[in-house]
Every structure is written in C-alpha cells, then in structure tokens.
Amino acid sequence: MNIELEKTPAAVPAESQSEELDVVREELLPPVNEFKRFVKVFFKRKVVFVGFVLVVLMLLMAVFAGVIAPYGPYDQDLHNVLAAPGGAHLLGTDALGRDLLSRIIYGSRVALSVGIFTVLVSAAVGTLIGLIAGYAEGAAQVIIMRLTDAMMSIPNLVFSIIIVSLLRAGVPGVVLAIAFTLLPGYIRLVNGQVMSVKQNDYVMAERSMGTRKARILFRHILPNCLSPLIVQMTMMMGVAILQEASLSFLGLGILPPTAAWGSLCYDGYKYLMMRPLLSIAPGLAIMILVFAFNMVGDGLRDALDPKLRGTSSN
C-alpha cells in the first residue's frame, strides 16, 4: 500500500523574508528623492548642523574679511599697544598695536586657503597612487603599500617639520609639506576601495573584453571611490588646519607679518600673563574650525554610507 506523504515547504530564513519584503516595499513605494534623503540624514544630528553653520560662517568671514574687519591686518595704533579688550578694539591689540579681532578675521583666509589647497593636492596625488596600487597588484602594489606604511609610522607633525625644513616657510612650502603627510591616508583608502570594486562582475566583464586599464580605472572604479573620498577630504581639512597652525606657532609655517592663527598664538604667548586673550582668541578660532569640519565629515559619512543611514542618534 503506497501512502503519499504531503511535502511541507522548507522554512524560509528570516533574513531572506526581510530582504524580500524590502524589495517589495521599494517596488510599491514611490521613488525617494536622493537629495532630500541626503539632506535629511546629513542634518539628522544637531551637532552636524552646528558644524555646518560654523563652516559656512567661517567661509563667509574669510571671503568678506575686508568688509567685516574693523581695521586692516597690518594697521598699527602705536598709542594703544597691548590695549585691553573694549572700546575701539573689541579684543584688544598686540605688541605692535594691531587690532586682534581684525587679524583673527583675516587669519581665517590663511587657514581655509591652506586647508583647501592641501586637501586638494593630497587627494589628487593620493587617489592616483591608490588607483595604480590597487589595480596593479603584484610587486608594484607591495612596494607602494610598504612605503605608505613607512610614511604612516612617522607622526604627521614631525614629518611636516622635516619636509618644510627642506623646502621653505610660506604658503607653498606649508601646503606641500602637509599634503605629503596626508598622502598615506588617501592611498590606503583608495587602494582598499579598488581591491573591493575590481572584483565586481561589470569590471571583470570590461577586463575580459580588453578595455583599456585607464578607462576601467577612471570610468568604472573611481566613481565608486568618491563617497569615502569626500568624507576623507572633509576630515582632513581639520587636520591640515591644525598642522598649519602648529607649524606657524613653531615659526616654520606662515611667516610674519601675515595674519595666521598659529603665529598669533605664539605672539600672544609672550604676554600670556598680561594679555591672555592674545593667545586664547586665535586658539579658540582654531578649535572651532577644526571641530566644525570634523562634525561635517561625520555627517557626510552618515549620509553617504548606506550602512550608516538611520543608525546615528541625535
């Protein structure tokens, strides 16, 4: 006697059911504007909004320094040397009678210009080297990555001091020195992205069809590296600004009489007991700008990384 047993369907894993529901939900729901989603996630945390506002205010202050500043950065009032805060000089004057508030405002131009140029140079060169290392593999990749590891073993400030000593103080030398110290971060980041992306089917298909390596790198692989690159560049703005201020404080960065926040801190250090605001005010400006860029970088990371969307808390 043959008895046919009814076959029960195999249990579907919960993860598979969840993925199927997500697919159905995406098909049924209207498409979401990616820009609106980006803005919503980016400004989800209040601290990111504060950082964004601070960056915008600093940029406006740098652009319109000539309008905002009550005095020129080199104007001297020899009758009010080391004047206390208040009156015609809200933050007082330095040892040469120059208005401290005006020099801090003009110093934002130096900080932002050095930061922007440094990040652009280091990102461009580091991305190119990272693309080559990640795609080449073999001995070329090993040599590049070992040199990168060796560079990362040296503290950034020490490395930048060595390089700027070989060049010369001033904006070009400082930009090149700091950019060189930031290269390893970009090389490692892009190399890792390339190693991951080049295993995708569409890249393998392009390689099998004999597509030129340059076309594969810049058309198919590089676009997939842009999101982490943007986050890295934003974070490195704060690092570059802090390094420039450190070099200027040590007398190896932006030379006097140019108004740079690091050199302002050093000039005020000589009169710290008498006029502490001469060092505290530019130091606060450095802290605020570095904090602002770090917060903006965190917000960009949350908004551009799909794995982190919706996971950050207020």
Task: Describe this structure as you would to a colleague.
This protein is mostly helical. It is elongated and about 80 Å long. This is Peptide/nickel transport system permease protein. Keywords: Cell membrane, Membrane, Transmembrane, Transmembrane helix, Transport. It holds the Pfam family OppC_N. It comes from Sporobacter termitidis DSM 10068.
Helix-and-strand structural type? mainly alpha
Task: State the fourth-level CATH superfamily of the domain at 115-309.
Answer: MetI-like
Strand content: under 5%
Counting H and I runs of at least 4 residues, what is the number of helices?
13
CATH architecture of the domain at 115-309: Orthogonal Bundle
Key traits:
314 residues, mainly alpha, MetI-like fold, 13 helices, 68% helix, MetI-like
Question: What's the structural blueprint in terms of helices and strands?
Answer:
Blueprint: H1 14-28, H2 34-42, H3 46-63, H4 65-68, H5 100-136, H6 138-152, H7 156-166, H8 171-197, H9 201-208, H10 213-221, H11 226-249, H12 261-269, H13 277-304
Pfam families: BPD_transp_1 (PF00528), OppC_N (PF12911)
Main location: membrane
Protein name: Peptide/nickel transport system permease protein
